[in-house]
Write a structure and sequence with these properties.
alpha+beta, Fructose-1,6-Bisphosphatase, Chain A, domain 1, D-Maltodextrin-Binding Protein, domain 2, eight-stranded mixed beta sheet, about 30% helix, binds 2,5-anhydro-1,6-di-O-phosphono-D-mannitol, binds magnesium ion
Length: about 350
């Protein structure tokens, strides 16, 4: 039960105050991201009204069609963080490479790197289905000037904060700065995110799996056996599991975080590294799920321990309730680091 009305910004500042060496820059950066997401939320809700939907006709670096709202969200996040002066490099799923940033103010050491997926689940925009923004923050390794590629390619365990915003029946922001996971619901009438979930924890075991089973025929035999296992009846182990799959990672992840569940996007015979991106999707959600008591793996290795080699690198992803992720790992078989 919440006993105090608390805005996101006040919560972030109070958390940062507990760290003696904190300068307040991380709070400001999170505030910048929240501001951008409030504006994106407004646009997502107005999208049908102002005829913003449809394709721009361009392709992003993944070769996928870019919709107008993706463009809008990407530009807005970049612009607000560039003006904020706390980031020395920005890495977006919609950009070919990272965007280095020079110091905006002389008295600031702009020390953070931000990775983001501006609008996840964008194939769902036109259907009025929940979509979201995902972000992940690191401290720079270099000491001055614009950020470098080495700053941008750090393993997930080095994240200092991560979060996501779901634009759904309401707009919710969930974040962690390494001291638990907290959720805030946007009150559109006053334009504030208000604390609605303090210290979120996810159930240790669940009864739900989320996977695109249309790919079943392309999965490894271990993966197919695992899904068959979840669907078989066995009262003692709580099977069969229910299947829930929206097709927007943020929405599927958020539901599973609250109620328990395992989200699965495995490798398949065509996509040997799965579909989802390590830096923009897997790492931030892995940081959050671990902070909430869950687990995240590529099937063989903890997501947060993977050393990234490129910004747009993909990874298989098994994430959610701890016991379910451990169970999935037992079914997967690997040879030379690849599932078979
Ligand atoms: P996006 O970042 O381009 O929107 O793609 C990622 C999305 C995830 O939100 C979702 O979990 C997945 O792709 C769905 O993929 P599929 O349509 O193959 O099931
Ligand atoms: Mg995405």
């Amino acid at each position: 039960m919440l006993n105090k009305l608390q805005t996101l910004y006040r919560h972030i500042i109070e958390e940062e105050r507990k760290i003696p060496e904190a300068t307040g820059q991380l709070s400001d950066l999170l505030g910048d991201i929240a501001l951008a997401c409030k504006v994106i939320s407004l646009e997502v809700n107005r999208a049908g009204l102002i005829d913003i939907l449809g394709m721009t006709g361009e392709k992003n670096v993944q070769g996928e069609e870019v919709k107008k709202l993706d463009d809008y969200a990407n530009t807005l996040l970049k612009r607000i963080m560039q003006m904020g002066g706390h980031a020395c490099a920005l890495c977006s799923e919609e950009e070919e490479t990272f965007v280095p940033i020079d110091e905006v103010y002389n008295d600031f050491s702009h020390k953070y790197i931000v990775h983001f997926d501006p609008l996840d689940g964008s194939s769902n925009i036109d259907a009025n289905i929940s979509i979201g923004t995902i972000f992940s923050i690191y401290k720079r390794i270099s000491t001055k000037g614009p950020g470098t590629i080495e700053d941008c390619l750090q393993p997930g365990y080095r994240q200092v904060a991560a979060g996501y915003v779901v634009y759904g029946s309401s707009t919710i922001m969930v974040y962690t700065a390494g001291k638990g996971v907290h959720g805030f619901t946007l009150d559109p009438s006053v334009g504030e995110f208000l604390l609605s979930y303090r210290n979120m924890t996810t159930p240790k075991k669940s009864k739900t799996y989320s996977a695109n089973e249309g790919n079943y025929g392309k999965w490894s035999s271990g993966m197919r056996k695992y899904i068959d296992y979840l669907k078989a009846s066995d009262g003692k182990t709580g099977r069969p599991y229910s299947s829930r799959y929206v097709g927007s990672l943020v929405a599927d992840f958020h539901r599973n975080l609250l109620y328990g569940g395992i989200f699965i996007y495995p490798a398949d015979e065509k996509n040997r590294n799965g579909k989802l991106r390590l830096m923009y999707e897997a790492n931030p959600l892995a940081f959050i799920v671990e902070q909430a008591g869950g687990r995240a793996t590529n099937g063989e290795k903890r997501i947060l321990d993977i050393q990234p080699e490129s910004l747009h690198q993909r990874t298989p992803l098994f994430i959610g309730s701890e016991d379910d992720v451990v169970q999935a790992e037992k079914f997967l078989l690997f040879e030379n680091g690849k599932e078979f």
